[in-house]
Specification:
Strand content: under 5%
Distance between the termini: 66 Å
Structural class: mainly alpha
Radius of gyration: 38 Å
CATH architecture of one domain: Alpha Horseshoe
Number of strands: 0
CATH topology of one domain: Serine Threonine Protein Phosphatase 5, Tetratricopeptide repeat
Largest sheet: none
Helix content: 55-70%
CATH superfamily of one domain: Ankyrin repeat-containing domain
Amino acid sequence: MESKRDHPPKRLDAARNGDHEAMEQLISGNAGVFHEVDVFGLTALHCAASNGHSKAIALLLADHTRSSILLDAIDANGCTALHFAARNGHEAVVAQLLTHDPVLVHTKQNNGTALHSAAHSGHASVVDLLLAKCPSLVNEVDSFRRTALHCAAMNGHDNVVERLLFCDNSAGVLRATDYHGETALHSAASCGHHSVVTRLLAADPSIAFAVESVGRTALHSAALNGHDNVVAILLAEQPDLIHRADHHGETVLHSAAESGRDVIVEQLLAVSPDLVRVVDAVGKTPLHYAAKYRNDLVAAQMLTRHPTMSPQAYFDCRSALHCAAIAGYSKGVAILMAEWPMMIDERDNHERTPLHCAAEHGQLEVAEQLLTARVSLIHARDRLNRTPLHCAADHGHDKIVALLLQSVASTYDEFAVTTFVNAVDRSRRTALHCAACRGCENVTARLLAASPALIDGLDADGKTVLHYAANEGHEALVSMFLALRPHLIHEIDKQRNTILHLACYAFQCREEFIQQLWRLNPSALFAVNQHRETPFNIAVRSVNRAAIMTLRMGMCFDDIMQAFPPWRNYIDEFWPFFEQQCEPLSVHLSVRDVLVVVYEYIWLDAAVHIKRQLVRMHFANEDKD
């Protein structure tokens, strides 16, 4: 017998090619050979039906016992031979199979019945045959709750659609919805099949108002996917459809603006110019969508066609210009500033100007446009008292930082440049603090070149830029700052944290880096902050193995024990038990040995695991006693 993994087996080749003589020879040698399946679950009947070989099928179904098994056999996807024949349009084979077993027409696979397969492929004659055998098939659904009408509509088979619409038992099929609540009209509109859309509307014009699960009509679907011919058909049939909004308040113009469908936008504005003023559930107009998704032509259409339109701000008070600046949509920025010059000074809910947004998102070209139009924006402050320089430095946008510094230098005097660079936010952080926190070396170097005194600045918590760099583990910046100002290693913040304290929080720090900081300031090893923590305490609490393994080399046993008061109490309590357990094994452990074991595998989960094991052993020993 052939192995299941032999692919393709000879019997399947013979059935697939319709080789009648070869099949007879195989049957005479072993009548049960055609019951076997390949790795995909295919039988010989599947292969013969898929290729329309009626004689081969007749030979396979000649034996009644064998035929019942083969007709009911399904492949890995749950398809019978009837599904294969219907999918490939073999009408004679479909009729032949149904003659042997009429009940087979009801068999469903993951993708539905044989009618779904025929409708999906557009085989009208097979559809007619199946509907004649069983008219109720028209209402059957697949695993996605789609009817055969959905399958025919999404693939543009208008002749099949017509048969399904006017067959018996088809009264509710037009309004049947799939898993997403979409009708066949939604499917046809999404795929741009205008002939199918026309047929469906002819059957019931009111179907155009049907909505799917989020409240979108077929017009939304057509606009979102850019099918302008379908949009024209739907609007001609139902003009009021243009004002329908989904559950999020989005009109069809919102959908077209989001996807940049300029032809459709023109169509919609020609029908209803006021659509451009409609806001969605969060207050966004179609112009906001166009700006956000960089659809410059759409924005131009809306603004040039309606020059009196004042773009409204949405829920966080960003104007369309803010959106364009964030998206880096330079053409849209130019259009908006030309039409509405006052928009350049508008603030969002966080008091940010469009220049803040451009600087934060690294949009160089937009920043240049804004500065050319209004260089004074460079000094604007947001709600946190940050300038655009803070935003650019905080996100590491070196080119934006260079542009801002150049703009100030070319417009104002040298004193103004120093004042600009030294500007502090609400937390008294300069742009250099932001760059140090993010580890931006190029930005840091550029800011220090503009104002070397920045390195000595303290924020509201008394932290220097070195504190920020050490806390985040930016070793290159720490080395840069110490080379410029060696005395910064001795600085402490308002919580009495040294540089070494903060470095022990940084997981990415290497042991060599911790050791360098310790050697530059040996007294920091035992320095205590306002929470009574040494750097070693912080390293243990942060589970920073590199810091622990480095700092313990400079600490005596008692110093280490002070960092672990719970362990000290625990060892004092259970030490007799340790000795009791170790004596039978001839193992001699000291408190120091136990600590070394824990510290070598210093991760806290390992320490907790050791503690639990010892406690478990303790109680197990008590139970034995």
